[in-house]
Amino acid sequence: MKSIIFWLNKKTMTALMAFMTAMLFSSIALAATTHTINITAETLPNGQLGYKMISHDGSTQNYPAEAIIPGPTLFAQLGDTINITLTNNTGVPVGLNIPGILENAAEAAAGGGSQNYSFTANQAGTYPYYDDGSGLLGLFGALIVNAVDGSVQSYIDGDGSIIPTDAADLDKEYIMFMVGSTFWGAEIASGTQTPLWTNPVLGATLNEVVRFHVLSLEHDHTFHLHAHRWLDEVDPVHQGFSPHIIDVKILTGKADSHAFTVKAGTGVGAGMWHLHCHVVSHMESNMAARFRVDEPGAASGVSVAGATPYGAILLSSNQSDPGLVTFEISDEPGSWFRSARSDAIVDPAGPLGALNIKTRSLEVMAPGSSAHFIMSDTRAVHTITTLIWPSDADSENKHDIPFDQTKAYRGGGIVQLNTPGLYVFTCKIHPYMFGAVIVDDPSTEGLDLGEAIDLVTGIHDLPTTSDLATRLLRTFFVATTQENWQDYTSPAPWHADYPDVNVRLSGGAVLNLQAVLESRYGQDIVLGPLSKPVTPGIGEVWINTQFEKTASKTKPGTITVLDTTNWTVKRKIALPGINMNHPHNMWVDRNQATVFQTQWFDNKLTFINQSNGQMIDNIQIGDSPSHVMTMPDSDDITVAINGENRIVTIPAGTTTPVSSIPTQLPGQVPANPHGHWITPEGKIVTPNINSSDTGFYDGHSGQIIARPAAGGNFSHGPHPIAIGVGNNRIYAANLLDHSLNVYDFDGNPVPVTANGGKPYINLIASYDPVSGDGAANSGILPIQTPVDPTGRVVVTANTGGSITIVDTSTNTVVAVLPCDPGCHGANFGAKAGGGYYAYITSKFSNRLIVVDPDPNDDGDFSDAAIAGTIAMADNSATTDDAVVSLAGMGGQGVLAIPNVYNGWVQQLPPEWQAGLTEAQRNPVP
Amino acid sequence: MKYIFYSVDSNCPQHVPKAVISDHKSKSKRLLSIWILIVSIFLSGTSTVLAREAEDRLDTKSKQGKLHLIELWAEKIPAGIEGGNDLFAYRMASHVIKKRNNETDITSRYSMQPTIPGPTIIIDEGDEVRLTLKHVFDPGNSATLEQVSVHVHGVHYDIHSDGTIEYINLVADESATPTMSYTYHWVAAPGTAGTWPYHDHNMITLNGAEDRGLYGAVIVNDKKSKILALNKAGKLQRVPLSRIQKEYVLFIGDDAFWGTEINNKNRRHTPLWENPTLLAQEKSFVRFHLIALGNNTHNFKLNHYEWTDPGTNLVISEKIIGPLEKHVFVVQARGDSQYWDDTFIGNSLNMKGDFNVIP
Fold first, then answer.
1. DSSP reduced 3-state for A322
2. How far apart are CA A525 and CA A521, in angstroms?
3. What is the CA B144 to chain-centroid distance, rounded?
4. CA–CA separation, A652 vs B171, rounded Å?
5. Taking a C-beta distance cutoff of 8 angstroms, is the pair B291, B335 a contact?
6. Rg, C-alpha atoms of chain B
């Protein structure tokens, strides 16, 4: 650093400060301009929202005619007065906030209304303006307040000199908003503003002086530009002895900004320079743009816009520019990937009319357009991961397909899709979140589902006409459409709506999608009557009706408490005071007095009084906590942090976490454990969904014992999801591998004779994925998989709609029972007079299935049967918040109280042991 | 693009000689190199190890500094050694400093192992670096680990030394591969003094494996300027570089700190691995070089110590640091302390270590 030059700069700064001070306290302030600005908020063709400039009296800027993202850039000078009239032409309230300048000023304008905002630009700098409610959907822009003398951020030249710069020296200014995992760009040159949309190429000619205005909303980002460096912004009163030269800058908090000037290519030359967020998950979800520095020439320095909300998507009038479909990631059941224009899509009077696709999670666009995801309506961490893609896409688009993030995080994603066909996106943490994009070649008849699809598990070239392909499609339409869920309180047959549209499948066959799905999987299916089991159970069953919505909460989910002595719903617990968000799984302390409840789409663990359903405490525990369980010996609480990398432990009787057991060594890919279980001697066994292994940890020392690989049917991504513990045997369900791994307690794989000695039980051995033969006798997409307290039988809830019964003496499937769509939770409770019931829940229905694995108590489980079914929707039950919709839906975690599993039953207090038989009190003699 | 032929008889990296450096502006030599490349492919088959060197147009005419000839290897860390298991790392294979006709080999200052963080490359403002990267991974993994690179922050380099793939830079895959090394050219021009990360950008995906261990720091010292420190009396003091006894390079990952230290007295580099205990002599000045990496935003604290926030006149006791940001400060050791990441995740994962001061 040439300090002399820096001191010159320091003098300039001092002079500037003196000038600013003089200006504020003198008549120079009279020179300030008054701006009268009329802007509107508009809905863009893809459903995103944007601000549009109508008029700006007091500025010579040349604004785009349409609503844009980012919104119009407002330039002012220090001391200017700015009066903005905002007219809201959208259907949601829209306001205007500017941190540090205009905070809590006026209320938002209601849809169709308008609002005035007035303020003085009393600090120089770059500020985000944005709407507080829907900002992430596109309602954001930049306010740039320049110093009165025109000075802007100095830049550092290639020889190290720091060059004071005036606004008049700037060849260009770029606005780069970092929102979700996408850059939204604009360029201002010679007073003309040009929208550059998503992830643009910013063009400049070598040695042009350009100013970047980098801004952010909601999520943290770090901005990095290759091969350039610049001066960190320092408040003049805190200017130190030497400048801070940086090339990465964090943007943090609700809204943030950072502005700097560079001389394009100085010291490094021309080139296509990468520009990206340096947060790894954001890099992996394509948060990158380009700064192209050209040698001087006729066409040098021209920027190139990225995919735009006005471009080539279904129904758009512009089919020539790359378009953008946008999904909001949401906590709303079914609409976890919600198209930004879904209100219009599902409206029978809307532009799609009688197509009746109902799902809000399907979009259609032209090849070369992009799918865009923004985590704007969720409190959880997620990944954006391709589950299915056209078989050619991974070679034609190899840098983007398959699309995935190594770590779940906040933000979003954007991916250009070039190959026609069907793409299904999911979240690895919450694997029933689905969003689908059909990339349709407009020159072919029917919407292109493609010749063949690949699955994330390593299945290649699966014909789109195959049973597995259409079965997955049907699963998509059921899972993403609340109206398609099974309501057992309605006498009407179960009707699932599918789009009445022609699709193009393998071999160029054009078929009606609705007709294909109805002919293969039926329609208007009569749901069987509910019937209570003849033999009562013992105690209560707590069911996480995770999607049930109540009046005082913005987030879904209740606990439904079932009294098994008479099979009636005793209580609904919604906890409106904490907006309990997606209650997923429970466990209970040794005294059966306190129930622990995870909030899977949040970061909380909730403590609830068993006897009255009142909340005891609600603590932050980690992102997307999935399962909770106590240590059998100490009663300490263990919580799997599914969105991250550890098991958190809380000492018995307290509500404060004291330590974590990392599920992997430092630096390794996070394991993202889901549904753990604990052996009687305190080994914690976790299904590690992200690292595709089963983790064995010493629950006392926290040491990693073993991490054997999971799965076996397919080569990739088995998605281990739940664990059952038997007598010296571990059963680990693999959701996408349709298998159960078998291990001993040290993590050694155990050969399964019935599967040729391979160390897993194949739940789809009889299933033909092309013809569909054998589907009814399979365990497709297994989830919770407990072993009964005696260690003799494994009951697995398969989300494909079946319950498989495995005899642990042979490790074979001895019975398969029907289940509902989204069959999910399973746990054992005591049956009155001896034996056990397995309680089975389903996400996309509202009944509990009670399975008796051994009705005649002969130790042969091939006669396992459904003992009864009970509606989870019951508005007559005691509740702390009125149920308003999705009554009884979303069955997931299930817990019988008293807890009669081996290792825990022995610890029950006498009053809870009283109703149990001797065999139930000592299940493994 | 220039190709240089290495006359070796196997791919075994232990036998690879030091990089051949030639005048990159010589067109005839470049043509010769290409000719040698073509001939070598015909003659030598698979026993050929090739090298590509970034062709560049950097302005080095004002150079008065030293030339650093560095060879780094990118490897998988063996499961047995500390920090191992599925992680990758850089190893310093050779570091020779040339000044006019003098050559000094300083390779022995470094750890002989691949380390996380990778070797700390310490140079002076005005110096040049020619860094040759070799791909030394298990060949069985070469299908997915087919390329690896070094992308550096802060210093000058042209588009051929960006360390990215052609899909990004539109010029070349600037990577070492199992059969080809890659040589990057950096110029620590005036204005680049500071601490900067370097990391892979090309392994597995176009983003590279920077969060799997392939990262390290470059320290560009400005020998002419003094460094602002907060001394043991709590007063600001400007100290010459020579007063700094130790450099602690601490990368803040998502689940641990990963450290290395350099003793400026004997110039030795010592890998300290995760959440290390840092030792300092009482009253000595020590410099912390913090760089975050991964997803999370951190809040760094060093109990009972304060320091100056770079670029400002502010004295601080904590600092928010996001991925790939750097934060560098000097303190005078005056008592035991603990450094930590005071965030919910940092506390949950016990991301902390001791800073112990020896009387």
1. coil
2. 10
3. 24
4. 61
5. no
6. 21
Claim to verify: residue A130 and residue A235 sit in the same structural domain: yes
Asked if the Cβ–Cβ distance from A668 to B162 is below 8 Å, we say no
**CB pair distance less than 8 Å for A159 and B171:** no
A644/B297 touch (CB, cutoff 8 Å), yes or no: no
Identify the bridge partners of residue B209 per DSSP, sorted by sequence position.
none
Q: Is there a contact between A268 and B157 if contact means CB atoms under 8 Å apart?
A: yes
Q: Is the Cβ pair A271, B207 closer than 8 Å?
A: no
- Sheet of A730-734, strands arranged across: A720-725, A730-734, A739-743, A760-762
SS3 B49: strand
Task: Name the residue range of residue A574's domain.
Answer: 540-921
In this predicted structure, what is the pLDDT of residue B38? 42
Nearest to A1 among B162, B225, B322 (CB): B225
Q: In chain A, what residues touch B321 (CB-CB under 8 Å)?
A: 250
By C-alpha distance, the chain A residue nearest B351 is: A666
Nearest to A622 among B190, B294, B348 (CB): B348
The percent of chain B in helix, strand and coil, each rounded to the nearest 5, is: 15, 40, 45
- The CATH code of the domain at B56-221 is 2.60.40.420
Check residue A833 and give its pLDDT: 96
pLDDT of residue B8: 30
Spans of chain B below 70 pLDDT: 1-49, 54-63, 79-85, 138-145
pLDDT of the residue at B81: 58
Residue B77: predicted pLDDT = 84
- CATH 2.60.40.420 in chain B, residues? 56-221, 227-358
Answer yes or no: do B350 and A660 touch at CB < 8 A. Answer: yes
CA–CA distance, A492 with B215 (Å, rounded to integer): 62
Strands across the sheet with A891-897, in order? A878-879, A568-573, A558-563, A540-545, A891-897
Give the C-alpha separation, A392 to A450, whole Å: 9
Q: Report the residue from A157, A409, A662 with minimal CB separation from B255.
A: A662
Closest-CA distance of chain A to residue B302, Å = 21
Same domain, A517 and A546: no
Sequence-ordered list of residues with C-beta below 8 angstroms from that of A255, at least 6 positions apart, any chain: A97, A99, A128, A130, A215, A216, A217, A218
DSSP A185-228: EEEEETTEEEEEEES-EEEEETT-EEEEEEEEESS-EEEEETT-
Q: Which residues of chain A have pLDDT under 50?
A: 1-30
Chain B closest-CA separation from residue A90 CA (Å): 35
Cβ distance B258 to A667 less than 8 Å, yes or no, reads yes
Which among A62, A71, A288 is positioned nearest to A175, based on CA atoms? Answer: A71
CATH, range B227-358? 2.60.40.420
Residue ranges of E strands in A65-220 = 74-77, 81-88, 114-120, 125-130, 140-146, 151-156, 162-166, 172-179, 182-189, 192-198, 201-205, 209-217
What are the Cα distances from residue A731, in Å, to A633, A695, A786, A804, B121?
Answer: 21, 12, 8, 13, 50
A232–B348 C-beta distance less than 8 A: no
What are the chain A neighbours of B79 within 8 Å (beta carbons)?
none
- Outline where chain B has alpha helix (H): 27-44, 166-169, 344-348
Chain A residues in contact with B351 by the CB 8 A cut-off are: none
Helix (H) or strand (E) holding A598: strand A594-599
CA distance A339 to A326: 6
Contacts B310 to A, Cβ<8 Å: 232, 240, 244
Using CA atoms, how far apart are residues A243 and A161, in angstroms rounded to an integer? Answer: 12
Q: What does the pLDDT read at residue B141?
A: 57
Intra-chain end-to-end CA distance of chain B, in Å? 55
The CATH number of residue A546's host domain is 2.130.10.10
The complex's ipTM works out to 0.94
